[in-house]
Amino acid sequence: MFFPFCYCILPIQSMNPYEKKRRWKFFLLIFAILIGIASVFYTDSFVKKMEREEANQIQLWVKIQERSMFLMDNDNFTEIVESVRKNTKAPVVVVDSSGHITTYFGLDSTKTNYSTDNKLTYDSLYFVHQLSKMKAQHMPLEMNILGTSYKAYYKDSFILTQLRYFPYIQMIVIFLFLLTAYAAFSSSRRAEQDHVWVGLAKETAHQLGTPISSLMAWTELMKSKFDAEDDPLIAEMENDIKRLEIITDRFSKIGSKPILEDHTVYIVISNFIDYFKVRTSDKVKFSITGDDQVRAMLNIPLFDWVIENLLKNAANAIENEGSIAINIIENLAKEQVFIDVTDSGKGIPRSKFDAVFQPGYTTRKRGWGLGLSLTKRIVENYHSGEIFVKDSELGKGTTFRIILKSSLTYEPTTA
Ligand SMILES: Nc1ncnc2c1ncn2[C@@H]1O[C@H](COP(=O)(O)OP(=O)(O)O)[C@@H](O)[C@H]1O
Ligand SMILES: [Mg+2]
To answer: 161 to each of 53, 89, 308, 346, 394, how far by Cα in Å?
Structure first.
């Protein structure tokens, strides 16, 4: 959780940084819980000790009080009584057999008053409340003074009460601290990652620009020099150069804020499938169904990249034969478009539904684990949408769902 050095941007394939990070997080969490438990136990033993001490002090005060009547005029003894009382931290209320308060200490002295005939009166609401608290906490001590019996009620001192709550308050403070630290680290890590993504993308687009322009010039030159306008080899070369241009365009779009345009989702995706289908094994069957009218604000080069990543992954997940089905659903109530990409591949374990989107997560030998994290960025950051694994069953297949806002300009056709 606090290990920014674990966050590798481009991890080495052979190790999975997320497994490591998860393990660290787990150990740190266990460690934090152990510290919490130890702190609770340690404080609890203190609380018990203090509780015993407070009870002993009150017993001592009660005993001294019982004897004091015989030694009233001994100044030294009065001093001792006074010092024992001062040392008793727990508040005490003494009540006679008919329930009247005869004395108290350790409570708010403003709640008592001397009446006109010089009698002490008690704020009954306050004292009833205090007495009920005391009764809930401890059994009263019996006190006998010159044959009259009294009951001394007492409650935990302020310090003891605080100490009881201390470990819980401490844990809340530690927890809040951990949460803030975690949020701070993650946001600075995200900013750092953003920087790298954008920087790398811009640099790649920039670097590819020059050789692509030269290649285009070279093919033109070859056509005229060898009089090969219709040569199929040159046509193939031109196709590849076009492909390179598309790739460069995608990278340059990642590096800057892309322009979104209103498009019919169905058409964009079926165009891409047409392009993709011929480049994939015949064993994979493609289909597209659902709403063919709904529109959304898209940046075609980037959105094609999203679909390409999903289709490539789906094709990889299908070992022998299988199908990839895209279904477009309009959620009119929320003005959203759902794009479900379902394959009949090997599936993703439920515990990995989130992990597949993390950079560096891959189960493929030659994978970099960047496809889905890039896809997520394009959907979330550039199209303000969402993407997640909707469903998956091992050995049966997976459905990824993209949610986009449908275009507000969309009007259902009445024809
Ligand atoms: N349709 C899918 N079916 C099964 N597993 C998938 C699917 N899509 C992605 N995955 C899993 O997610 C991982 C990450 O995918 P991705 O980010 O595209 O990286 P890469 O393709 O380089 O492995 C894949 O290695 C695979 O384990
Ligand atoms: Mg991939």
So the answer is: 14, 11, 63, 59, 55
- Amino acid at site 368: W
- Total Cβ atoms within 10 A of residue 248: 19
Q: Which ligand is nearest to the CA of 362?
A: 1
* Distant-in-sequence, close-in-space partners of 36: CB < 8 Å, separation ≥ 6: 167, 171, 174
CA–CA dist 203, 142 (Å, integer) = 86
Q: Which residue's CA is minimally distant from atom 19 of ligand 1?
A: 369
Tell me the C-alpha distance between 212 and 55, whole Å: 88
**105, 86 in Cβ contact below 8 A?**
no
**Is the entire prediction scored with pTM above 0.90?**
no
397 CA: nearest ligand 1 atom: 3
Closest atom, ligand 1, to C-alpha of 347 = 4
Q: Are 183 and 48 in contact (CB under 8 A)?
A: no
- Quick: pLDDT tens for 160-183: 999 988 888 888 888 899 889 989
The distance between the two most distant Cα atoms of the chain, rounded to a whole number of Å, is: 133
Per-chain mean pLDDT for the chain: 87
Domains of the chain: 40-156 (3.30.450), 260-405 (3.30.565.10)
Are 322 and 343 within 8 A, CB to CB? yes
d(CA 205, CA 207): 6
Separation CA 353–CA 347 (nearest Å): 10
Report residues whose beta carbon is within 6 angstroms of any ligand 1 atom. Answer: 309, 313-314, 317, 343, 345-348, 356, 361-364, 367-373, 398
